Amino acid sequence: MPVYLDYAATTSVCPEAVHAACEAMTEGYGNPSSGYGLGQEAASALKADRGVVAEALGCLPEELIFTSCGTESNNWAITAAVKKNRRKGRHIITTAIEHAAVLEPCKALAAEGYEVTYLKPDRSGHASVEDLTAALRPDTVLVSMMLVNNELGTVQPVAEAVRAVKAYDPDILFHTDAVQGFLKIPVTPSQLGVDLLTVSGHKIHAPKGIGALYIKKGVKIKGLLLGGGQEGGLRSGTEPTAQIAAFAAACRVGRERFEENVAAMNGIKEYSLSILSGIPGLEVVSNGEAPHILAVSLPGYPSQMMVQALDAEGICVSSGSACHKGKASHVFEALKLPPRVRMGVLRVSFDTATTREEIDTLALALKKITSERVAAM
Questions:
Q1: Same domain? 159 vs 209
Q2: How far is it, in rounded angstroms, from Cα 164 to Cα 8?
Q3: C-alpha–C-alpha distance, residues 183 and 186, integer Å
Q4: Which of 256, 279, 304 is the last residue of a domain?
């Protein structure tokens, strides 16, 4: 088995989620919209599963709409929010370090005539509420600010930002991509004050292909899919009951073990910082507040070369978001790192299963790779 240290990219499916999915596929396989007994049993299970996910998130079940993934939820939230407020204006505010699932729909809207303001982070990887307040305008219709950055692990000041936005104009909608924050840091939409919030299953040991969008009660947005009226009429289509059951199971486990999971990840992160900092030349780019993400750099060593060399040693890390597919990260560019530092960035991300021995293996491999390169020069 490889040493897997890329949990921010995806996680393995936990046994509880596997069992729940199998049960839904083989026993409770009825269509929840069917009127006979098997269908109504599936409908009851779906209702219960929605309640479990909502409880883990800290919202009402009716405020939670299941989607296929975080990308879908982000796209829907952003496009629906601007359409809802289209008579108010055409100005959007987001940050320069958002996930591509936020930046790309904003880019598409810009091509349609919307104006997008991108807030620059400081060197630590945090957006500024002061900069946000200064960017607000009478025609601002949407603010989208992620909760935890997926490459830096920095927690953005979402609650403070919401208060500033709503004080300026309560009609401006506020969305947060909470994919990397859900069940990693305390997250409830009511505490944050947001109107729309995105979560994803495969970051918390549920399968790929399931996510959710929180829509605050009273916020009316246009539905995503037309059809049979499922998901409160907002996203029609037969519900993927097996994925939802697995999502609920993973949420239940994550919620029950939240404190011990966070403590375990914080512990391994602290150990990683102490061990990796001893590697000659290595720089810590960000040890953001989230417990599961650490960004480091070996200046002068190209990230992709390091990723491939580590893979040859049986170690899985990334050079940033998996969605970059080897391209330069806009996140690290936004930090204005020196070019040599930026080119050598690696993201190491943890889970409760990560061991000190795995971190030791990573450190030894990094030392081996760098020493071999030095010897070859």
A1: yes
A2: 30
A3: 7
A4: 256
| Tens of pLDDT, residues 282-298 | 999 999 999 999 999 99
Does some domain include residue 82?
Answer: yes
What one-letter code names the amino acid at 160?
A: E
Domain span at residue 271 reads: 258-376
Q: In sequence order, what DSSP letters do the residues of 177-206 get, joined into one string?
A: E-TTTTTTS---HHHHT-SEEEEESTTTTS
Task: Give yes or no: residues 125 and 138 share one domain.
Answer: yes
CA dist list (Å): 102 to 99, 202, 282, 334, 363: 6, 18, 31, 16, 34
Residue 223 lies in a domain: yes
In the annotation, is 323 catalytic?
yes
The CATH number given to whatever domain includes residue 65 is 3.40.640.10
Residue 124 neighbours by CB under 8 Å, 6+ apart: 154, 286
Query: Are 154 and 88 in the same domain?
Result: yes
pLDDT in tens, 230-284: 999 999 999 999 999 999 999 999 999 999 999 999 999 999 999 999 999 999 9
Domain count, the chain: 2
The string of pLDDT tens digits covering residues 91-150 is 999 999 999 999 999 999 999 999 999 999 999 999 999 999 999 999 999 999 999 999
Instruction: Tell me the CA end-to-end span of the chain in Å, nearest whole number.
Output: 33
Banded model confidence at residue 314, pLDDT cuts 50, 70, 90: very high
Burial 217-253 (b: 16+ CB within 10 A, else e): eeeebebbeeeeebbeebbeeebbbbbbbbbbbbbbb
Catalytic: which of 106, 251, 316, 323? 323
**How many CB atoms are located within 10 Å of the residue 96 CB?**
16
Q: What is the pLDDT of residues 182-239, one digit of tens each?
A: 999 998 999 999 999 999 999 999 999 999 999 999 999 999 999 999 999 999 999 9
Q: pTM for this structure?
A: 0.95
Residues 267 and 233 in one domain: no
Give percent helix, percent strand, percent coil of the chain, each to the nearest 5.
Answer: 45, 15, 40
Report whether pLDDT(157) > 80: yes
Would you say residue 68 lies in a domain?
yes
